[in-house]
Amino acid sequence: MTKRRQVIDVPGVRHGTAPIPMGIRIDNMVYSSGIHGMDPESGQVPPDPARQVELVFQHMRTIVENAGGTTADIAMVIFNITDDAHRPLVHAEWLKMFPHDDDRPARNTHIMPLGMGMIIHVLMTAVLE
Asked: What is the pLDDT of residues 60-72, one digit of tens each?
């Protein structure tokens, strides 16, 4: 029997001590767990909001690439941010990753409190060929 579930890691990024993978692939579908802006070098969430957002986008890319896809395979992204003032930071990184108007994933953004110094937390779904 072939194992359908492939665990996807982001080197240096973890959910603390919780037994939660950063993502999984089942067949051609990729689902992330909560992606946060942890710096893989320090193992900490940096206090700089722009850096957190940049890291979240890097981690999304790493998850989908480690699953065998590209950012073109990302179908849906749900952003949770602590303050609407952070939305321009998300837009800037979004446009870097998805520059073409007619080739972007679906997206939703929620404003909510987050713990551990996070200003952003993301859930992603990708569909691979």
From this structure: 999 999 999 999 9
Q: Which residue type occupies 76?
A: M
Q: Which long-range contacts (CB under 8 A, 24 or more apart) does 38-44 make?
A: 38/12, 38/13, 38/14, 39/12, 40/10, 40/11, 40/12, 40/13, 41/12, 43/12, 43/14
pTM of the model: 0.95
SS3 (DSSP) at 60: helix
Backbone dihedral angles phi then psi of residue 55, each to the nearest 5 degrees:
-65, -40
With a CB cutoff of 8 Å and minimum separation 6, the contacts of 70 are 64
Residue 126 to residues 86, 90, 129: CA-CA distances in angstroms? Answer: 24, 19, 10
Contact between residue 78 and residue 123 where contact means Cβ atoms under 8 Å apart: yes
